[in-house]
Write a structure and sequence with these properties.
about 50 residues; 2 helices; about 0% strand; elongated
């Protein structure tokens, strides 16, 4: 179980970076800023939860 969790965590970094790029490409400029901040908040919450 621990190895599976670590492998998922290893994919999280690149997927997080791709998420920002996808948000900027897919959404119109007016909505991209808000969506980027929501994605950033989600990344922060996952990082805090992962440290516990």
């Amino acid at each position: 179980m621990m190895l599976i969790g670590r492998s998922i965590a290893g994919f999280y970094g690149p997927i997080g970076a791709l998420t920002y790029a996808t948000v900027r490409e897919v959404l119109p400029p007016k909505q991209a800023g808000t969506a980027s901040s929501i994605v950033g908040s989600g990344v922060a919450f996952v990082a805090i939860g992962g440290r516990s």
